[in-house]
Amino acid sequence: MSGPEYHVRIKDLPSLQRPRERLRQYGPQGLSDSELLAIILRVGSDKESAIALATRLLAHFQGLGGLDRASFGELCSFHGMGEAKVAQIKAALELGKRLLASSPHERPVVRSPQDVARLLAHMALLEQEHLRVILLSTRNHVLGVTEVYKGSVNSAQVRVAEVFREAVREGCPAIVVVHNHPSGDPEPSPEDVAITGQLIQAGELLGVEVLDHVVLARGGYVSLRERGLGFPSE
To answer: 158 and 194 in contact (C-beta within 8 Å)?
Structure first.
């Protein structure tokens, strides 16, 4: 006989693990896509928290781009969603698009590892390892930042298709891969180097250039391209 179902509610989490409290402490840049989406949803259901619902949504629709492309009806038919939640998501996504459209000249430009470190400096303070991808235009303007993994990042977990998914969908010619080391030491591991080599090869086949792989930590940052790790000699 199975026991009663067990569901962790957001209000049952320690305060520093709740999305709103984490946003207040670290800023919105320090939160994952799931956490930001959970704040927009506000509540989940009697069977799952808003974070769990947000995670399911992102997995099912394959990221924020998929959520944006999904119709109102498709989202309403997803288990746990109703018209109010769907309206909140659609409104938030539209505001983001309008902000970018209203000030394209204000988009950050990434031309060096220092630019990457400044743009995603908050990642150095995260308590878990995250892998994110900076999507770039032909002029190196930042078109978006997508989170690919949260947890332990290693070559066995990283799927090349997931790293390049949004870049291919949006037609981005180049990306920068970024992940953090919660230990505080930015020194790349052998696995970091191996992943970099795999991604460069895949990018050549997909027509998306991997400009760099940057490791951020409280102790600073390391550009694998500058070190010549995983990248072909120039």
So the answer is: no
Query: Of the candidates 130, 132, 149, which has an alpha carbon nearest to the alpha carbon of residue 59?
Result: 149
Round to whole Å and give the CA distance between 126 and 69: 30
Residue type, 11: K
Structure tokens at 28: 């919105």
pLDDT class of 168 with cuts at 50, 70, 90: very high
pTM of the full predicted structure?
0.64
In angstroms, rounded to a whole number, what is the distance separating the alpha carbons of residues 108 and 27?
18
Q: Which two tokens stand for residue 200?
A: 């460069």
Instruction: Summarize the confidence of residues 154-178 as an average pLDDT.
Output: 85
Q: CA–CA separation, 38 vs 217, rounded Å?
A: 26
Domains of the chain: 10-101 (1.10.150), 107-227 (3.40.140.10)
Angle at the Cα of 179 from the Cα atoms of 177 and 182, rounded to 5 degrees: 175
As a whole number of angstroms, the distance between CA 234 and CA 125 comes to 33
Burial class (CB in 10 A: 0-12, 13-18, 19+), 21: middle
